Amino acid sequence: MNDATTSLLTEHFSYTPLSLIDDIINSINNLIYQAISSLESGLLATPPERLGFGHANNGSTIPDTDEDGNVVYPEARLEIENGLHQLETLLEANVDKAFDKFEIYVLRNILTVPEDLLFWVRLKHYEGLSFTSSPDAPTPETILALRKRVLETRKLTRSLKEESARNEAVIAQLKSILSTVETVSPDRAENGSKTDAAVKPVDLSFLTSSPAARQLRVGVDTSAHTKYAPLTTNTTFILSQLPALHATLENLRPKLASLPGSSQGLTSRTKRDERREYIESRIRLHLERAGQLAVSDNGNPVVAGRRIDISEAQALESVASMLTQTRKD
């Protein structure tokens, strides 16, 4: 029996032909098990003397008895169980051998369809079916095009959601800045006529209390086990080293130009920079096409960072103005 015949008969019967034969064989096996069980019950209920069991007639041994005084034959039960097991094995072997022949005969001669009639058979539920393709039926090309459209739509949706989230974050920051400016402006207008001594000092606590300051050990002591250098010490040391660095740079710059391999080094460095810029541009273009990187108006990627408070911005502006004023003086 080939696959086409099996498929046709399975569709017609709603089950495979082999499952029908298996059900028949299982039914016969169940009958065997029931017969063995009934035979076992009958043999165990029969007195052992009637089955041929007995004790020796010499007077030296006394047979064992149960509570009712009946003679007990312990070897009788063991003999019955062994005999029933052998009988069951024999019947199963004969059934398997006989029904293997039955299975082959049924599959070859009964549950089969001749090959010359196989493609002419039409089942009842085939009536009224039209196997001609409809002009509106989807083709592999149209399915592929629709799949691409779905992927592009999902990509666009993801990028729009990311852009919306970034815009909401920017709007929230702008609103917080505006609210802070609106609360600070009236205070400045009222205190505009006062002297500079009455102006509130700039809050520069973020320079010593931020995570970066703690990591660099800049600030005040927070415990007995940690030692932090004062901010003024670090600032004074950096400012004291700046003139020496400027002088060293001015001395080394003409010597660098006079070196024989300086032009080659600059050329190789330029090529290396160009190669790195090219790779970065291709990566950025790929990420933009995939909708995973936002680009600003000037072409630079927009990367969300830590939100800067208005007080920190004002403090940084004050520090920059003080440094500029000090350099001018």
UniProtKB/TrEMBL annotation:
One of its GO terms (cellular component) is MIS12/MIND type complex. GO terms for biological process: cell division; kinetochore assembly; mitotic sister chromatid segregation. The keyword Transmembrane helix does not apply. Keywords: Cell cycle, Cell division, Centromere, Chromosome, Coiled coil, Kinetochore, Mitosis. It comes from the Eukaryota. It is found in: Chromosome, Centromere, Kinetochore. Belongs to the mis12 family. This is MIND kinetochore complex component Mtw1. It comes from Penicillium oxalicum (strain 114-2 / CGMCC 5302) (Penicillium decumbens).
